[in-house]
Amino acid sequence: MNWNGRRVLVTGAGKGIGRATAVMLAARGARVVALSRSADDLAKLKSEIACETICADLAEIEAIADALKDALPVDLLVNCAGTTVLQSFVESDLGEFDRVLKVNTVAPMVLSRIVVKDWLARGIKGAIVNVSSDAARRGVVNHTAYCASKAALDAMTRVMAAELGPSGIRVNSVNPTVTLTPMGELAWSDPAKADPVKARIPLGRFLDPDEVAEAILFLLGDGAAMVNGVSLPVDGGLSVS
Q1: Is 146 a catalytic residue?
Q2: How many domains does the chain have?
Q3: Catalytic: 46?
Q4: Which member of 46, 146, 193, 198 is catalytic?
Q5: Is 2 within the bounds of a domain?
Q6: pLDDT per residue over 187-214, tens digit each?
Q7: Residue at 84 is within a domain
Q8: Do residues 11 and 29 lie in contact, with contact meaning Cβ atoms separated by under 8 Å?
Q9: Could you tell me which of 40, 109, 135, 143 has the fewest CB atoms within 10 Å of its CB?
Q10: What CA–CA distance (Å, rounded) separates 103 from 182?
Q11: Could you read off the pLDDT of 15-32 as tens digits, one per residue?
């Protein structure tokens, strides 16, 4: 794909998969609009790739429209911002559950709706990638809110693909297993928890953020022109083991 001149909005661009995606897009000629809640992370990223930046907390749903008003138009969207909380089902705090759902599911819906309305008005055939997780299809202990939020994101992806496809807009999700981002390292730092999962991955290891970014760029790109509504596992074979 020729990325030159393509304007791509990447949320969660301050760290992890989002940051890797933003850096990779910029290196290949795209114009990146990076959104993160951390001003420091955005400043560091801007110094590296000369991106545009938006500092916003996506848990504040009502503020999203104002945050995006100067970002449009964009050609492509990556909904990568995510959060989690480690709590058992019985001890799950409703406020924390709601916060995870807001960031992981509701914010992508609101962001996508704003971008898609602009595309429809301008007749643009764009592409959206929602960054989900293999936790969308598995029950992971102490991840009630996270699993629920990612399963909902996958379901929303399918609906978006069905409804927007006739307008030439493609929507897919990428579903990595454990990725060694700051959040991933926090959640999977205990060998007693991590080693049994790693042992089930045929390729025998967890993911690097760049490996997920490559899959995201594939789904955004022209080479995936007939890929729509999929939840793409990037898991070293965990889903078949």
Answers
A1: yes
A2: 1
A3: no
A4: 146
A5: no
A6: 788 899 899 989 999 999 999 999 999 9
A7: yes
A8: no
A9: 40
A10: 17
A11: 999 999 999 999 999 999
